[in-house]
Amino acid sequence: MRRMATLLLVALVAVGAGACSTASEPTGTPAYTITRTWSNGMEEQGLVYADGRIVMTHGEHTERVTIPADQMAELAAAAAQEIPAGANSDDPIVGVAIGDAAPIRPAGLTEGSLPELLNRLLDSHTLHP
């Protein structure tokens, strides 16, 4: 009887863990994408989905965070503005895409611009550190 209870508990934990990991994966086209390419070869990427979920990769490390609706509204307001141009000599070189549009690369990190806000998300996981 004890063995049966242990097996049942293990099965429930496994099913619960599988359900949690599947539910947290965003789907569809990201609302915003940022890429950073550093002079040392390291590449980073952030995919921001319309529901506030973000999947970030820093080299081989992946992180998942969710930002609140007010921060998504800030990104939308910044996306309505022109994306400033960067320079190929920047380190890192930043690329930004809205939806499935072609990325703008290099993008400048002018304060309050979409590239600057997305860059801040990659660094701090929030717009308001």
What's the quick description here?
It contains three helices and five strands; from the N terminus they run αββββαβα. With 129 residues, the chain is α+β, with helices and mostly antiparallel strands. Strand 3 and strand 4 form a beta hairpin.
Task: Characterise this structure.
The chain is α+β, with helices and mostly antiparallel strands and 129 residues long. The protein has helices spanning 2-23, 69-79, 114-124, and strands at residues 32-37, 43-48, 53-58, 61-66, 93-98. The chain has a five-stranded antiparallel sheet with strand order 4-3-2-1-5, with helices on one face. A hairpin with a 2-residue loop joins strand 3 (53-58) and strand 4.
Oligomer: single chain
Largest sheet: 5 strands, antiparallel
Number of strands: 5
Strand content: 15-25%
What separation lies between the terminal Cα atoms?
Answer: 52 Å
Cα-based radius of gyration, to the nearest Å: 19 Å
List the strand order in the largest sheet: 4-3-2-1-5
Secondary structure class reads alpha+beta
Enumerate the spans where pLDDT stays under 50 for 5 or more consecutive residues.
1-23
- Share of residues in helices: 25-40%
User: How many distinct helices?
Assistant: 3
**Which of globular, elongated, flat, extended, rod-shaped describes the shape?**
globular
Query: Helix-strand pattern, N to C?
Result: HEEEEHEH
* Mean pLDDT rating: 87
